[in-house]
Specification:
Blueprint (H helix, E strand, L loop, with lengths): L14 H18 L1 E3 L2 H10 L2 E3 L4 E3 L2 H8 L6 E4 L6 E4 L14 E3 L5 E3 L2 H13 L5 E2 L13 H12 L3 E2 L6 H15 L2 H6 L5 E3 L6 E2 L1 H12 L4 E3 L4 E2 L7 H22 L5 E3 L4 E3 L6 E2 L1
Parallel strand pairs: 1-11, 8-9, 10-12, 12-14, 13-15
Antiparallel strand pairs: 1-3, 2-3, 4-5, 6-7, 15-16
Helix pairs in contact: 1-9, 2-9, 4-5, 6-8, 8-9
């Protein structure tokens, strides 16, 4: 069973607008730079030819290095579910839908709102598995009846037991990333099979403005070693942790994403990556994220 939905892509910005964002991004990455809190990633940038201040952990990236590194990322790849016959083509302008990821509350059929538990995670995985227009089963709810530092392992196992579709990994820190890789390696039958069939989706949210955190980059480096995809998605807030204008926000998040993608490509050229975003505006009255 190969799941390949039809393609489609919104084109909101003109080519000239995209060029303006690109040019400003190059300026930001070279003149300002990005702060990289993870020492191994810092070394990767330095060895590649970026300007690195090891005291401040600031990395300034020249245009040519940015271009040649980002170009190593694949334009398309297959992403595999528990059943290796279920795969999603990432690329070719194809569009896939997922259930929402990591909500902590569930809304019961009787109208009650409460903390999610393992049974809810199981039920949501089954629902996602059965829905024709849902292609990816993310973390349906964070189960409150398992230890906080173990919920990722429980959710991965629950999703594999209750769905054939693709699901998330978890890359918060090197140890957790390595342990989720070990689980997926058992599922696939070995490390090499896992490398051939990317199965875990990691997430890195840059710390806006212009920082890459130690924990998530640690995990991203582990995932790069095993050829597992990582989605780089800032949650920059216009007027708070990013410029208030849409243009300024787009430039900043573009710089943050590209710096993250460079980490994966410097660690293992050709590692699959996603360009993501969950950026929004800050509510100026309350200071909350207007997501």
């Amino acid at each position: 069973m190969i799941n390949e939905p039809t393609g489609g892509q919104l084109e909101i910005l003109t080519h000239a607008q995209l060029e303006s964002i690109h040019a400003a991004t190059i300026d930001v990455l070279w003149k300002l730079g990005v702060k990289v809190w993870e020492k191994n990633a810092l070394k990767l940038f330095k060895d590649a030819g970026a300007s690195v201040d090891e005291r401040t952990m600031m990395v300034r990236i020249p245009e040519e290095l940015l271009k040649e590194t980002v170009e190593k990322a694949p334009s398309q790849f297959y992403y595999y579910g528990r059943d290796p016959k279920y795969r999603l083509m990432m690329g070719q302008k194809k569009v896939h839908f997922s259930i929402v990821g990591q909500p902590v509350f569930v809304h019961d059929l009787d109208g009650k709102i409460r903390r999610g538990v393992v049974k809810d995670t199981e039920d949501i995985a089954r629902i996602g598995d059965s829905c024709r227009n849902i292609h990816h089963v993310s973390v349906g709810t964070v189960p409150s009846d398992v230890p906080d530092d173990m919920h990722a392992y429980h959710v991965m196992l629950i999703n594999w037991k209750n769905s054939v579709k693709t699901t998330d990994g978890y890359n918060y820190g090197a140890q957790m990333a390595a342990e989720t890789v070990e689980m997926a390696s058992i599922l696939r039958g070995g490390d090499e099979e896992l490398r051939k069939m990317p199965t875990l989706l990691g997430y890195v949210n840059p710390v806006s403005p212009m920082q890459l955190s130690r924990e998530l980059i640690e995990g991203a480096l582990v995932y790069a070693k095993y050829n597992q995809p990582v989605l780089y998605a800032p949650e920059a807030l216009a007027g708070g942790t990013a410029p208030v204008t849409i243009a300024g926000l787009l430039v900043q998040q573009n710089a943050e994403v590209l710096a993250g993608i460079m980490v994966s490509q410097l660690a293992n050229p050709g590692t699959p990556v996603f360009y993501g975003t969950v950026s929004a505006a800050m509510d100026m009255r309350t200071g909350a994220a207007a997501l």
